[in-house]
Design goal:
alpha/beta, 2-enoyl-CoA Hydratase, Chain A, domain 1, globular, 10 helices, six-stranded mixed β-sheet, single chain, about 45% helix, Lyase 2-enoyl-coa Hydratase, Chain  A, domain 2, 9 strands, 2 domains
């Protein structure tokens, strides 16, 4: 991978790190291109069974780098096109990736950086981290899924406050509100994320992907639709290797050895 994205792996866990620490890992179009390649690698490589998304340095991601945009008197950047070509595909790919994705958040996660973190399956943040819907401070609306994810996670009242006031939300408050999965002491962040990623990589990947698919679908389905999807997913999983292994391990009272198939 090129320099703006650092891609490493440890066994079944891939680590994708934003690598512009001097710019608080703010997004550029070049960085997006590299990020797309990294996510695509995680999708097609069957030996990768869990993904950690994080940032190098003192921030997770400060959102869009304004230096990568143009402003009058030059023709201004078409923000709609920028979002359509970069941020929306990124959020969709993270949500659709058939493997668990953990966002490891340290420092600031602002603007699109905050919402890309929220698009991941589990968000683990250090206690000194914070989340900021910074858009209103420059006359914009939350994007990268913000107007969808926020009300579904924390309700209309809190979503309105976050979007309209543009104030920082501490990691602990984000966890208390249910916006993220967990807030841990900064010194424990790496250990906690690594342990959780290794645990997920050893689990039945197809089942995790199915749960992810069903939970995302439930946001826009009624109960009947969710029941039908659960039925269909269980039918698929019921003939999987990991289901057979899980049952055999349970009956034999031994740990299961899942293979992600």
């Amino acid at each position: 991978m090129a320099d703006d994205i650092e891609f490493t792996r440890d066994g079944g866990v891939a680590r994708i790190a934003f690598n512009r620490p001097a710019k608080l890992n703010s997004f550029t179009r070049a960085m997006h291109a590299q990020l797309r390649d990294a996510v695509a690698t995680c999708e097609r490589d069957a030996t990768i069974r869990a993904v950690v998304l994080t940032g190098n340095g003192r921030a997770f991601c400060a959102g869009q780098d304004l230096a990568d945009l143009s402003f009058p008197p030059d023709p201004p950047t078409d923000l709609g096109a920028l979002i359509h070509e970069n941020f929306n595909p990124l959020v969709r790919s993270l949500q659709a990736l058939p493997k668990p994705v953990i966002a490891r958040v340290q420092g600031i996660a602002a603007g699109a950086g905050a919402n890309v973190a929220l698009a991941c399956d589990l968000v683990i943040a250090g206690r000194s981290a914070s989340f900021l819907q910074a858009f209103v401070n420059i006359g914009l609306v939350p994007d990268s899924g913000g107007t969808h994810l926020l009300p579904h996670r924390v309700g209309i009242a809190r979503a309105m406050g976050l979007a309209m006031l543009g104030e920082k939300l501490s990691a602990q408050q984000a966890a208390d509100w249910g916006l993220i999965w967990e807030c841990v002491d900064d010194a424990m962040l790496d250990e906690r994320v690594a342990s959780l990623a290794q645990r997920l990589a050893a689990m039945p990947t197809r089942a995790l992907a199915a749960a992810k698919r069903a939970i995302h679908a439930a946001v826009t389905r009624d109960l009947s639709g969710s029941l039908d999807l659960e039925r269909d997913l269980q039918a698929e999983l019921g003939v999987s290797h990991d289901y057979q292994e899980g049952v055999a391990a349970f009956l034999a009272k031994r740990p299961a050895r899942f293979e992600g198939r």
